[in-house]
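User: Predict the structure for this protein chain, please.
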Amino acid sequence: MGLQRRAVLTLKKTATPTAPAGVPDLPDRAAVPAHTAETPDSAERGALLAAAFPALLAFYDRERRHLPWREEPTPYRVWVSEIMLQQTRVEAVKPYFERFMRALPDVYALAACPPDTLHKLWEGLGYYSRVRNLQRAAELVVRDYGGELPRDPKTLLTLPGIGSYTAGAIAAFAYGVPAPAVDGNVLRVLARFFADGRNILDPRVKTDFETTVADALSRGTPRPGDVGQALIELGATVCTPANPACEKCPWHDACRARQDGCTSTLPCREKKTTRREESRTVLLLSFGGRYLIRRRPDRGLLASLYEFPSLDGFRTEEEIRAYLIARGLTPLSVAPAADYPHVFTHLVWHLHGVFVDVAEAFDLPEETPLALGGNTPPTPAPGGDCLLLTPARIRDVYPLPSAFAPLTAAILTRKGDKPC
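Assistant: Here is the predicted structure, written as structure tokens:
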């Protein structure tokens, strides 16, 4: 039976139809208007949401995508996939996930993996703190839990890199625990379903939606893991950010935002932060076809990854030559390589890459001034020696973040490089 909704109430109190059997009645729209700033009754919403689950599960059984982590939902595979899917599209994750599973098939292999190998497996996914936390958590799972991920969401929350969504996803998808797994897709679906105009970027609003989902799941809902997957599937494939396909939605008749004609304005996302902007000159220092890279410090942005050395600001050719000469190097040529921006969550780098050929075969120690930070370089990371490598070896072995991908491509395609 399709879900039914109450007729829209006007301020003149007309006859109020009753909801069909088994479907909770909705509060008057005059009492709970769309775009309210007040916290709604989670129990009342939970009852309504639970009644909508059968139609949602039928949609999921019929339309769900076949994804590698869904076909074999072990706790380890679910965990790794959920960490990869943070800030990354499903189609982009698939090949990385398959490669990662081949190289590190279980939590023991992940815990024992050398950091450089781990970073290389993650290269291209970005947000490298995710994979560092993944390994730290794996070490704890091996040490404290016998290599088995806990099934209790509260225990999962104690592991590095696992927040409320990931804890709920592991518990629900892998173990069938009735735990809420509320990500951006689910927030969008629920904001529209209830025509809730509160800011979904407010942590308090997310917590309230988690409470609503938890209440709905507590009402004896079968297949709680599939319910969580179905909510995500609905948001990813039907209730999309732009141009939602309402005619395909299993909640077409129940969705208050569709009834109110406000699907295009919901959910409300009010960001309070702006991105800081920095400009940097990146030096592609080469001798005989080999290029200098170094490891970044163990803490902070892009920690422990490799980079091409760079200077603060956009530097002229004269400034670059003077900088190198002052440090005992003889620049033979300085030529543009690539100019482009790279966007992080709270930061934008405007990068100016230059090819710099030098006369000396240098073997620079880790204290070299040719490091991030301009005239006053930071303290080098332990073991952060500079390396002089061919472009192919940089590409194949050493993990460079995607911020430097255009420059790695530039040295790979540069004409005339002949390694000594």
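The radius of gyration is 27 Å.
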